[in-house]
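Re: beginner question about structure tokens

> Can someone show what the tokenized structure looks like for a real chain? I only ever see the sequence side.

Sure, here's an example I had lying around. Input first:
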Amino acid sequence: MSFLTIIVATDKQGGIGINNSLPWHLPEDLAHFKRSTSGHAIIMGRKTFDSIGRALPNRRNIVVTRNSDWAHDGVEAVTSLQAAQELLTEDRAFIIGGAQIYQQALSLADQLIITEIQEDFTCDAFFPKIDPEKWEETNRESHCSEKNRLNYAFVTYKKK
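And the corresponding structure tokens:
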């Protein structure tokens, strides 16, 4: 069984997106995402894939979709998160969104890597609340974006 990590960026209210896109531009988070996930399997919902628009390079791309006929170059399509897990042969895999997949994966994940952006944005998709009875913060790196002056932190949680 692969070690499952959820990776996500949220605003102060747990917002993760609006109209199937990110409500912020934080180059440092995109670089952190790339460093963290490169060389590993990534699992995402079809809407998240659509927002990206292509398979991400140097990663095994697995898309969860209810449409069993859906296909895209460079992507393995499955109809459930369980089916995605069954495909995994890697030691580590990342869940990269969206909201429905995060909700389903929270009980399956071993680790959370959350970029906490210290601003409020208009969002229509949210990350589930983190239960402190189930998750323990193990690392926090605080930063301020040089490009747009956003304060943020890379925060790691492990399942208790």
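Each token stands for a local structural state, so reading them left to right follows the chain. The chain is about 20% helix and 35% strand.
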